[in-house]
Amino acid sequence: MIKYEILINPKWLRKLEYDLWDDDLVPAVLKIGNNRYKISLSYRGNVIRDKKKRSYRVVFEKPFTKNGAHELHLNAEFSDISLCRNKLSLDFFDRIGVISPHSRHILLYVNGYCKGIYLEIESLDQYLLKKRNLPDGAIIYATNNRANFSLITKKNEPKKRLDQGYTLKYGNKEDMEHLRSFIAMINVLKNEDFKREIVNILDVDKYLRWLCGVVCTQNYDGFIHNYALYKNGETNLYEISPWDYDGTWGRNLHGRLLDYDYVPVTGYNTLTGRILHFPEFKSKYKEILSTILDNDFTVEVQAPIINELFEKLKPYISLDPYIESDEATLDEEKSVFFEFIRNRNAYLNSELSILI
């Protein structure tokens, strides 16, 4: 496992600690092997900031990029006993044809103190598009649970703005205007008009693949949060990508066990509901999901991937001062993964009959 060491002036470290919710970046140095990078640093995430092991946002200053990336995330994965659910999810989305950030585990030190195992994750931004040879286009993050494609919030309160819950990562004001128009269209067009227009605004096939990924991994928040919209500059269609998927594969974001049938096969949010209203879209979703259940979301396929991830972590698990996991814990946790995949697969297959 590669070692990352952050070197930071104690006064800037105190600034980070003084206000955990401050997103202002502070200067630091990142050392990887014999290479040193001047960086800017801040804490990141929501729930994790209150934990003793926190996640970081790293922005490269000099040089401006590393391996084509200007920014990366170091996720603590504190509430995931396996430290693997996020990576396994992102890799799963990639496998089924959804644009997804790449990730790898690293061992992090700060000013000489071991902070444990972290998950390095690509930032979903214009640099990722360039690395993947994808067309340039706006990227908008769904940063809280108001990003539900609806006119009302999760608490059934009218939204003050149609773009509530969203943050522009890359693009301009016009891109947010397009998003507001998209959300309005989702909610006000009559069925026949929606069916005609949606294919001119959204890549429906890729959206259905994303929906399959959320439904299989059972990310409860994934329908109204934990995603990014990318407007492909060539097709001029929205595509959708996952991020922050630690509350998956049988546990929620707090690490508690979750029943395998907690999330329905149809998922939930306003856009999904409208798309699946139409038999041809529902039939396409059924076809894609059935293929994934047969070829990707099985114990036979995922077990070797999970085993390999766990074996890579085992030599370093005792170095993490913030978690109680050990090699035996990881071995025991495999049963949670395997039982979830087996039961979730059977449940979703049994529910395919309603997708007609």
UniProtKB/TrEMBL annotation:
Pfam families: CotH. Keywords: Kinase, Transferase. InterPro entries: Spore_coat_CotH_CotH2/3/7. GO terms for molecular function: kinase activity. This is CotH kinase family protein.
